[in-house]
Amino acid sequence: MIPLENFLILAGILFATGLYGVLARRSAILILMSVELMLAAVSINFIAFAAYLDGEAFSGLIFALFVITVAAAEVGLALGIVLRLFRERRTSYVDAADTLKW
Amino acid sequence: MIDRLPLPAQFDRIIMAGGAVVALVLTPILVVLLALLVGDQISAAELVFWLAFTVIVAGALGTVLLSNIVHAALALVATLLGVAAIYLLLATEFIALVQILVYGGGVVILIIFGLMLTNAQADPVVTDGSQKPFAAIVGLLLASIFIAAAIDAEWGAETAAVIPFRDFGARLFKDFIVPVIIVGVLLDIALSGALVNARPPREDDATPEGEAAS
Q1: Nearest Cα to B89, choosing from B57, B42, B36, B53?
Q2: Which DSSP helix (H) or strand (E) runs through A45?
Q3: Rounded distance, CA B66 to CA B71, Å?
Q4: Dihedral angle computed from the Cα positions of residues B196, B202, B203 and B205, in that order, rounded to the nearest 10 degrees
Q5: B78, B58 contact by CB (below 8 A)
Q6: pLDDT at A23 over 50
Q7: For A24, which of B86, B99, B135 is closest by C-beta distance?
Q8: Quick one: which of B109, B205, B9, B141 has its CA closest to A13?
Q9: Rounded to a whole number, what is the largest CA-CA distance in chain B?
Q10: What is the DSSP letter of B8?
Q11: What is the mean pLDDT of the segment spanning A19-40?
């Protein structure tokens, strides 16, 4: 029997790695990939809690399903925006999108 | 024999280098885990867990550290498939299959298309001061807080339940029907939004007021 803590530690490491990627990367698509890592970490937490502490209620599983759906929608939309940015600025680096910066 | 494989030379090198790295990292871990399994130190489920743990953490580090963007995307695939293995281990087959279908099949393909369409090269070299040290500090602090909290807390009775998926579907479409409908509407909006954003501008498009001058 694997203790619940192992799953939580794995999710914590995965989330922190994704956060590092979001903060350190400059390319919009790499930031998007790091966000995917963070979402996967959250889903692991939801499913681990659902399986260990919430055997009948399924709420964690349903939340994980919604997380996956919303993440798919988010990737499609974000890549549309990145394509738009690329068409305007000829680059996909977030440093190039500085019109609102003063 | 490898010379005769009908692969472009660049893919050849990538596959061989990647395979060598994966083999070098995974083989010692696999040997140690198998020795522990034979010596009855860990169960088979724990062996699978630690293998998936290695793949996930190595893939995540590859995703955020590799400078070649396509290699980072391949590392992301490894991570997401490892997460699917974790779901299988938690006896939630349906979510694991959805994870493989949606992430391995859809999201990653979409990201790779995005890479190709935006002509993205490596992560740019920054000249105005790197954020990496601060990002590393934040990441390490957050990871240590999570690990300390997970170890310190009392989680009550631990009985990993095998969840019947017939009940899961009934519950999803009876009690959670409103969120399901909202997610459907959200997907519709996201689809139209992505289409409107990504479509190239045409001659007969009505220009918004602010952009008319430029």
Answers
A1: B53
A2: helix A28-53
A3: 7
A4: -10
A5: yes
A6: yes
A7: B135
A8: B141
A9: 76
A10: -
A11: 90
Can you give the length of chain B in residues?
Answer: 214
Q: Which of B36, B50, B63 to mutate to test the interface with A (most CBs of A within 10 A)?
A: B63
Measured between beta carbons, the chain B residues lying within 8 angstroms of A9 are 146-147, 150-151
Residue of A nearest to B120 (CA): A92
pLDDT at residue B170 in the model: 84
pLDDT reported for residue A82: 87
**Tokens in use for B123?**
């992560």
Residues 6+ apart with CB under 8 A from A101: none
Q: What is the ipTM of this complex?
A: 0.90
> Is the minimum CB–CB distance between B21 and chain A shorter than 8 Å?
no
Helix (H, G, I), strand (E, B) or coil at A59: helix
DSSP track, B116-156: HHTT--SPPPPSS--SHHHHHHHHHHHHHHHHHHHHHS---
- At B45 the pLDDT is 83
Residue contacts between A and B (CB atoms, under 8 Å): 242
pLDDT digits (tens, 9 = 90+) for B10-69: 666 777 777 787 788 778 888 888 888 777 777 888 888 988 999 999 999 999 988 888
Each residue's pLDDT tens digit, B111-165:
888 888 876 666 566 666 678 888 899 999 999 999 999 888 877 666 656 667 7
Q: Does the global pTM surpass 0.80?
A: yes
The answer to whether the CB of A79 falls within 8 A of the CB of A33 is no
**Beta bridge pairs of residue A93:** A27
